[in-house]
Amino acid sequence: MAGRAERRQAARVVKFGLVVPALLAAACAPLSEQQAGTSSGQARSGALFVAGKFGNTLAKVDLGSGEEVARVESCANPHELTTSPDDEYVALACYGGTSVDIFRTRDLSKVKSIELGENARPHGIVWHDNGSLYSTAEGRKSVFVIRKPLGETETFEYATGKDGSHMLAVSPDAMHAWTTDLGSGTVTRVDLVARRSPLSASVGDEPEGIALAPDGETLWVSARGSDMAYALDPQSLKKIKDIPVGDFPLRIQLRPQGDYAVTSDLADGSLSVIDTATGAKVRSIAVSSREEAEAKTQVTILFSPDGERIYVAETMANTIAEIDFRSGEVLRRLPGDGGGDGIAIIE
Fold it and tell me: Cross-referenced InterPro entries, in alphabetical order (predicted)?
């Protein structure tokens, strides 16, 4: 099973054109109905990990069978998840508490609990290719760097100075991190090396979703109160492009190939697909109807490592929708019991 570093390198090969152009064009072209059906019917391998924020659980779903194969008690109100570069561990942000907890992906046995301090409320979390963990600490208005999370752990705290530092992105070279600050309505750049003062900018109304392009050149933000997505310069935080999307875009994710950004539009039950080259919304994917949207409450979205599937946490419905990216077809609904919110994947 390839780890994340190998998968990212494969994505970089595609992004920088080191493949036969005709093959790349074919890969990006829309599929015919017959081809889409073939793609949709292919068996998947690997596992999906689900944080049950109401049930205080961590679960593992086998992607081959579509069945939940393990579930353990976790911590209070767990939210976001991230897997280690070698896919052997999953780290859980304990939003109702003060720790980041680490479990084995094999059997969900707990390995370690890393304390971040009083009122930490960790939320956004990234396990970087360099081996370190990065987490927001919303209650402390800060970002933590956790070095050697599986060994003699060291933690370093960097202030954002903003209310509600919620979601997180980290640069490929680990020199900078960015947060969306719900309470302050800002995006903040944190210098993790020189420790210069953080830089913040107002971006729309209630910015929450955040994702950095694979090459680190563009920062993507979704503002749920504005029904907008924004492309930003990561260093200056100046807007490059404003893109109207669906209703209440809670999250934004980049396809591993970097060619599309997708927002999770909670209030209308859809996904908005943005061409990152043009900065234009090119289509919508209906995950549920507007009438069903409030009852299902879709939150977190996640691409499969190959970019062919999207997984959408429907928190109030206790399901995770699996969607074929090219056709937009909802293939199945996987278990997401306990208010599944944060999700992570290994394949």
Answer: Haem_d1_sf, Host-pathogen_enzymatic-act, WD40/YVTN_repeat-like_dom_sf
